[in-house]
Amino acid sequence: MKLNVEDYRRAARRVLPRFVFDYIDGAAERGDCLNRNRADLDRLALMPRVLRDTSAVDCGIEVFGQRWRQPFGIAPMGFNGLGRAGGDGMLARAAAAAGVPFVLSTASNERLERVATPGGIHWLQLYVMRDRAIASQLLRRARAAGYQALVLTVDVPLSGYRERDVRNGFRLPFRPPLATLADIALHPRWLLRFLRAGMPGFVNLAEEEGADTLQLQAALLSRELDRALDWDGLAWLRRQWDGPLLLKGVLHPADAREALRRGVDGLIVSNHGGRQLDVALSAIAALPGVADAVEGRIPVFVDSGFRSGADIAKALALGARAVFLGRPLLYGLAVDGEAGAGAVLQLIATELERALVLCGASRVAALERGMVHGLAERWPVGAAGQGTREQAAEDVVIHRKNQGALQT
């Protein structure tokens, strides 16, 4: 019986070879940022309001003109086919059934056209590699396939040092050491699926299906990205993408203000699940400062470290429009494929509704910062890094001008 995400995590550890579980579960260097994400979430408590009518609860929200059934979605994650063959499509279908968005990673293992589930909410996450033609063809295909928003990941100028992957010999081309081969043999069900499907590849790097991209795949796995991409590069993206554009990996309020000035449509507060800079601030600690910096002009989302509906309630109270979930869905996927991913989404939805009712909130908007106890002075909350109201007003004017100029 699996009663929470940790139960799914333990089950995933049992069914996956160690190198696969470590890739999913691991983080950069010592794992300090990974642990900080959890510790800071656990440090926060909610102060419920009482004698409020919660006989009917609505967890739905509207984002960019679309209705989400829940204020959470599935974050972009690469190499999903390693844990379960066909994993990207399974996650997309589970998200569509739950009425929540699925963000497809550039490092996905299924063609983006095949993943686009009819009636689903599909966003595309983009890594800009040194050859920008790869990004251009991805955007052309995503527009044609009906993807509704573009998520530019901005916290990966190079890959974080992931020690667990190094110890397991996980790299492309894959040449596992003897210990890893022995461990793989102890997981026959995973091995059988792997042998049937073959080593998953980053099949969206080439415009034509079946093209040989081994060199590009190795470059993407090691995050050999375009480190020259800067704020001015957003204009280049806008010329190729006319839908909502979000930046993922923002932690500093000053970057949030600059994004507003540049006409960005949304932000995802994230430290890449602790997989990049091990000394980075936790996402939940950065959230209030980023939310304050944009003052509601654009939606602010968050990921990194969220494991329950109660965690999501805390983020909503601190100003997030919604939360994106990563590892919990991969645990469910490893255990029971699409059904496992769907079960995790339902579990978290049930936890969130229960948290809302017990906090006296009949809808997401009823959660507010005054309900959150445990915000430390050191966190970038309120005026810290926010600038003057006059500066914020000027930023909004520039944001609107840039949106008009960049979309023509």
Automatic annotation (TrEMBL):
Binding locations of FMN: 76-78, 105, 125, 153, 248, 270, 303-307, 326-327
| PANTHER family noted in UniProt | 2-HYDROXYACID OXIDASE 1, S -2-HYDROXY-ACID OXIDASE-RELATED
One annotated GO molecular function is:
FMN binding
CDD domains reported for this sequence: alpha_hydroxyacid_oxid_FMN
Instruction: Provide the active-site residues from the annotation.
Output: 272
Which UniProt key words apply to this protein?
Flavoprotein, FMN, Oxidoreductase
Domain (FMN hydroxy acid dehydrogenase) spans 1-377
An example of a Gene Ontology cellular component annotation for this protein is:
plasma membrane
Q: Give GO BP annotations, semicolon-separated.
A: aerobic respiration
Q: Which protein family is it in?
A: Belongs to the FMN-dependent alpha-hydroxy acid dehydrogenase family.
Question: What positions does the entry give for glyoxylate binding?
Answer: 23, 127, 162, 272, 275
Q: Does the keyword Oxidoreductase apply?
A: yes
Cofactor dependence: FMN
What Pfam families does the record tag this protein with? Answer: FMN_dh
**Protein name per Swiss-Prot or TrEMBL:** (S)-mandelate dehydrogenase
According to its UniProt entry, this protein's organism is: Azoarcus indigens
